[in-house]
């Protein structure tokens, strides 16, 4: 997570710096600049979304594996299907 945040901070510094040598000089350059900026933001957002979805899928797989392991342990202990009373 820290690595992702550092990447984002670095990209923000590069992409949002209005004091760079590439300052737009006219309306057409400003339009291109803003389009590029929005495309970069969209690309970063998509990358982050993909990473989040992958992590959620991984977590789901781990939970499934944990449930299988618990069921196996319950079978070995002879308490299959018994629900503890509260």
Automatic annotation (TrEMBL):
Subunit relationships: Homohexamer. Associates with heptad repeats of HSF1 trimers and probably also HSF1 monomers, and with HSP70. Association with HSF1 trimers and HSP70 coincides with attenuation of heat shock response and the conversion of HSF1 trimer to monomer.
InterPro entries: HS1-bd
UniProt region (Disordered), positions on chain: 1-23
Protein name as catalogued: Heat shock factor-binding protein 1
GO cellular component, one term: cytosol
Family: Belongs to the HSBP1 family.
Taxonomic source organism: Drosophila guanche
Compositionally biased residues, Polar residues: 13-23
Gene3D superfamilies: 1.20.5.430
One annotated GO molecular function: transcription corepressor activity
Keyword Nucleus belongs to the record: yes
Gene Ontology terms describing biological process: cellular heat acclimation
Record keywords, A-Z: Nucleus, Stress response
Transmembrane residue ranges: none
Primary location: nucleus
Keyword Nucleus: yes
Primary role: Negative regulator of the heat shock response. Negatively affects HSF1 DNA-binding activity. May have a role in the suppression of the activation of the stress response during the aging process.
Subcellular location as annotated: Nucleus
